[in-house]
Amino acid sequence: MRAWLEMAARLERQEARNRRCGARTRAGTPCRAQGSGRGNRCKNHGGLCTGARSAEGRARIAAAQRKRWAAWRAQRARNEEIA
Fold it and tell me: In the chain, where do the E strands start and end?
């Protein structure tokens, strides 16, 4: 019984290591890259990126977002003036 449990645990670990991404490509086929990170997706489909972790990185991203949204609001205001 114990040998069977050890074998099942080993197979489960191997499956986890060999798990594929599985996200759909533009061709409609499943992605064949090795999955990792959240949801076992590959780096192209959102598996590795965890975002900024340091205070500096978070501040840099927040500043970039504020700049982007300010530009978006300005463009929207210009569009409303034209309409």
Answer: none
Whether residues 11 and 23 share a domain: the answer is yes
Q: Which of 46, 19, 58 is nearest to 35 (CA)?
A: 19
Structure tokens at 57: 């990185």
HSE of 33, CA atoms in CB hemisphere, 13 A:
16
- The verdict on 46 and 57 lying in the same domain is no
**Per-residue tens of pLDDT for the chain, all 83 residues:** 778 878 877 877 777 667 888 888 889 888 888 887 667 888 888 777 777 889 999 999 999 999 999 999 999 999 998 87
How many structural domains is the chain composed of? 2
46 and 16 within one domain: yes
Instruction: For residues 3 and 16, state if they share a domain.
Output: yes
Decide: helix, strand or coil at residue 36.
Answer: strand
Alpha carbons 1 and 23: distance in angstroms, whole number: 37
